[in-house]
């Protein structure tokens, strides 16, 4: 079944449904509203008339009896279309006025029932009491001058000041008879509208179908081109993915190499910093050594001066020793004088002894004294000889010690001077070397500083290159993602174009197009792509 046939069938079915809906629901609802609204409007009009007279009673322009009489006279003579009328009964179900059946006036109508057994006026009274003083009631009631009861719908409204219930209604068959001509006109108009709509839709659908057929043909060609493009894009995506993968591998290796270079540069930077630190320590040590050598040279000079002082002191001590030797010589000379005195004493003692001997007994005491003096002279002579010998020995010993000491000290001073001189030479050489070391360390310090600065700049450059490579790596990864997405999109496009071609073929069949491709041919073409 073609799309045209389906569309026209659906349109015809919808038209039929609308036609039936209007006949069954809309017209019936309109009839029901007319049956209810016309009596309601009429009753509300009479209610306003009664209310007008009720206000006159309140204003004491009329008595209640006069007002009721005026109202009843007016209602008695009012007739609506189709002979319909108004009646009034009260809440006690007593008929106040019935223009058609005057026999009911003043009687109890609670006992009146319709053929269905409904107490008509009792039900009416209950309705207005339960529904805020108004309501609609459907029942069976005979038409004027007819015996058979007909379906009737009445509207009721309570006028509370007087306890009156005003009612009026319409017979359903009268409304249907009145509306039958109008309903037939509506049905004819609907049929004309539906017929014209079908003709217009036929023309419109034909034009649309022709346009769709042309569009389908164009779309089919477009899908064919789209499949070719998707195939080419798929191939390009594959080559791009392969190239990007190779680029990612190369960039990854470059990033790894740059990381290693960066690590090496950082190690060199640390080594240069350490060398700079060691150079500073070396420089400090060289300067300390230089200061120490300077102090050593000063100390050596002081030692040399001390040796001069020692030599001078030794010479002075030699002079003092010579003076001591001279003193000892003088003491020895004085001892010789003592020896001479001892000799003279001995001689005197001898002479005294001789004289004592000559004196005999009287000279014995003097002889003893002379003997003791002689003994004392001998002892003094012996002591003087001993002292003289000791002085000679001391003089010789002092002379030997002085000569030996002078010789040894002179030798020591000479050797000390030689050593000090050699120390001065070594210290001077050390000072020169330390000065040279200080100069070299300063030069090395500057070179190391320049190397450190260069390494820092190189490290910064490597970091920048590393960052650039990482950004490039990220961009390349994004390119990989985009390439994969493009590949997926190309594949999805191919699948969608494949599905679209089959959908177009199905659409052609639905449209009943003359041109069409075989489904197997389409499947074979898609398998090739």
Distance between the amino and carboxyl termini:
33 Å
Spatial order of the strands forming the largest sheet: 2-1-5-4-3
**Biggest sheet descriptor:** 5 strands, antiparallel
CATH architecture of the largest domain: Orthogonal Bundle
**CATH topological fold name of the largest domain:** Helix Hairpins
SSE topology string: HHEEHEEEHHH
| Overall 3D shape | elongated
Reading off the top of the CATH hierarchy, the class of the largest domain is best stated as Mainly Alpha
Strand tally, please? 5
Q: Proportion of β residues?
A: 5-15%
Cα Rg: 80 Å
Are there runs of 5+ residues with pLDDT below 50, and where?
516-520
- Domains (count): 3
Helical content class: over 70%
Protein described:
Helix 4 runs antiparallel to helix 5. The longest helix has 188 residues. About 1% of the residues have low confidence. This protein is elongated. The chain folds into 3 domains: 160 residues, PAS domain (Beta-Lactamase); 117 residues, no CATH class; 183 residues, Methyl-accepting chemotaxis protein (Helix Hairpins, Orthogonal Bundle). The chain contains 6 helices and 5 strands. The protein is of the alpha+beta class. Strands 2-1-5-4-3 form a 5-stranded antiparallel beta sheet. Helices cover 81% and strands 7% of the residues.
